[in-house]
């Protein structure tokens, strides 16, 4: 009987990674690896088993809202829950959501505080009466008198209506304070705003050096007042009076507004646009919807005094009595 074949001993450091046929058939088995290779394989396996946590940016959390935060909190069993990066991202998303809500609430609060301050400022008059926010204790006396005695009072005199329409058109170049300070000069130049008398003036006379030195308005505005006077005369012939024509747009009754804050008062309305369109069709100039709405406020076609202003009730009473 022959002796078994002699096997050459192999040093452990020279072992190779070989595939051999196992007892189960085609299943491969691996021979032991050298120590450096085994350590390297262990590190690779450990790296694969480590869970990968993708960081969440605050923008993603803001875009997906609370539902995104909730979906990540449902994975409490995973190791990502304990990841500081995941927790930091989620908390920053919550802070962003709270911040966006607080910004809108803070702006609303700031606006309310401003409006309350305006209301309190209206209580600082020596007579103790509240007025609209555009009148303050430091306003000129003529401006305060204009608010207390004229603005919002229904006007039915043709001359007064034409005067207020002309002065409202002048707002494109002057403020109400400047207009009121020169009001007497306006009346002298334009013959107390008598549309019949003004219509007889010529362009040459109205733009003469004597009148131009007053520097009331630009030549274009002066010519527009002349042209509007001619058109008012035509309306008087057609309707009997300018008063009847203009008050027909509001059914002979002022519009009673219920504005509490200045921001609620519009610069124009659909009614003003309708009147402006009809006046332009008739040949009037410098009668934009904003000019017409200012005229409506001044002539009392609409009562835009704030509800906290003492003149709101006064103008309403004068409308009821017709005085």
From TrEMBL:
> According to the UniProt entry, which residue ranges have a biased composition of type Low complexity?
72-111
A Pfam family assignment: Adenine_glyco
Keyword Signal (UniProt): no
> Binding of Zn(2+): at which residues?
132, 147, 305, 309
Q: Where are the compositionally biased (Basic and acidic residues) regions?
A: 8-18
Q: Which InterPro entries match?
A: Adenine_glyco (IPR005019)
Family annotation (PANTHER family): DNA-3-METHYLADENINE GLYCOSYLASE I, OS04G0501200 PROTEIN
Name of the protein described by the UniProt record = DNA glycosylase
* Source species: Arabidopsis thaliana x Arabidopsis arenosa
Recall the taxonomic lineage recorded for the source organism. Answer: Eukaryota, Viridiplantae, Streptophyta, Embryophyta, Tracheophyta
């Amino acid at each position: 009987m022959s002796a078994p074949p002699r096997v050459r001993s192999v040093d452990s450091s020279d072992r190779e990674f070989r595939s051999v046929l196992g007892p189960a058939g085609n299943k491969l088995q691996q021979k032991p690896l050298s120590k450096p290779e085994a350590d390297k394989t262990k590190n690779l396996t450990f790296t694969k088993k480590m869970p990968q946590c993708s960081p969440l940016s605050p923008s993603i959390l803001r875009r997906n809202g609370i539902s995104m935060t909730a979906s990540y909190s449902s994975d409490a069993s995973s190791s990502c829950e304990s990841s500081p990066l995941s927790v930091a991202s989620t908390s920053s998303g919550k802070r962003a959501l709270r911040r966006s809500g607080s910004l809108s609430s803070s702006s609303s609060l700031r606006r309310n505080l401003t409006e309350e301050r305006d209301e309190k400022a209206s209580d600082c008059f020596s007579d103790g009466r509240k007025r609209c926010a555009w009148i303050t204790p430091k306003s000129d006396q003529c401006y305060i008198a204009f608010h207390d005695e004229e603005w919002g009072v229904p006007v039915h005199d043709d001359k007064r209506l034409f005067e207020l329409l002309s002065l409202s058109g002048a707002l494109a170049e002057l403020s109400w304070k400047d207009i009121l300070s020169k009001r007497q000069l306006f009346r002298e130049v334009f013959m107390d705003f008598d549309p019949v008398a003004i219509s007889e003036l010529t362009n040459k006379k109205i733009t003469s050096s004597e009148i131009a030195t007053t520097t009331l308005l630009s030549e274009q505005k002066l010519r527009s007042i002349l042209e509007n006077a001619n058109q008012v005369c035509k309306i008087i012939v057609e309707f009997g009076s300018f008063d009847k024509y203009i008050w027909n747009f509001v059914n002979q009754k002022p519009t009673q507004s219920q504005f509490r804050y200045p921001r609620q008062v519009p610069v124009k309305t659909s009614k003003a646009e309708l009147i402006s369109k009809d006046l332009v069709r008739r040949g009037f100039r410098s009668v934009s919807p904003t000019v017409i709405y200012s005229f409506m406020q001044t002539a009392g076609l609409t009562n835009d005094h704030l509800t906290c202003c003492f003149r709101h009730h006064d103008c309403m009473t004068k409308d009821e009595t017709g005085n």
